[in-house]
Amino acid sequence: HPELQVELRQLLLPDDLAALSAIVHDLAEAQRRGYDRLYLETGALAEFAPARALYARYGFEPCGPFADYADDPNSAFMTKTL
User: Does the pTM of the predicted model rise above 0.90?
Assistant: First the structure.
């Protein structure tokens, strides 16, 4: 079957616990809906390093631009196979 993909968007949360809860919820919901892969775009600058590390902890890996995104030195793209 064709791969079902989804992009996570706008995860702006006040603390690590809220962020962890949101990621766990999003992963469970994506699996429930039968998606095969998740993608996200976040900042590539140093201040976004904690966000990239958090996503990596949940199995996201760096990837190239996806969907309508173009390569951008200020963006970091990540993906996770479900």
Answer: no
